[in-house]
Amino acid sequence: MRIDIVTLFPEMFGPVLEESIVGKARKKGYLQICCHQLRDFSSDPRRRVDDTVFGGGKGMLLAAEPFARCIDELSEHLGKRPHIITMSPRGKVLTQEHARELSRKEGLVILCGHYEGIDERLLQEYGAEEVSIGDYVLTGGELPAMILADAVSRMLPGVLSEEACFTEESHFSGLLEYPQYTRPEVWRGRAVPQVLLSGHHENIRKWRRRESLRVTGKNRPDLLSAFPLNAEDRKLLQE
Ligand code: ADE
């Protein structure tokens, strides 16, 4: 997959997308990430890309044209119009399922808003999808773009050792993940639950399922009420 990121602050992306799993995925060729400086696409001699908002109001807005030039250049280079996303607190809140869908695309272009955002006509012209990372406002779309790129990258085939690495964790099934433990068996007087040391696979599976249901109910009752419980789940919840 190829991810292009258009931003006023390309330097912010360096270390975050070069280390760890995403860094390895790039080195192994599963993923290509290219950052583009929005100012390089300005026609202004002083490389300005923003302007005041029509109708009044505080702050500055990023103009449509520099983004459009960048997207057009990318489309020509790629030989087709890529899927375009803008990071915005106004967008649909990102979920694991959405990240999975995006990971199946050949490429993504992520536009990072800043200041008051981006001229609406740019979004209309390119059918851009607005994505939010949560119901709070950050200073710009750069951190959200990194989060989206990370969430998508780890689900690309080959990036994690096994698909189970993400199919068994929080949010994949609609439940949150059960607690996990490593050595030592007793740490500061706290012992690992006995069942996990028993080697009894069926009991371990049931324990994990019950714990997933319990953690989801405690931390995210909204997720638990939306989850289609089966007969075993109902029994486990009552035990
Ligand atoms: N830009 C600022 N806040 C944001 C958010 N919550 N999600 C995506 N982009 C943003």
UniProtKB/TrEMBL annotation:
Catalytic activity: guanosine(37) in tRNA + S-adenosyl-L-methionine = N(1)-methylguanosine(37) in tRNA + S-adenosyl-L-homocysteine + H(+)
Methyltransferase among keywords: yes
Designated name of the protein: tRNA (guanine-N(1)-)-methyltransferase
Family label: Belongs to the RNA methyltransferase TrmD family.
Residues the record lists as binding S-adenosyl-L-methionine: 113, 133-138
Keyword entries, A-Z: Cytoplasm, Methyltransferase, S-adenosyl-L-methionine, Transferase, tRNA processing
EC number, UniProt record: 2.1.1.228
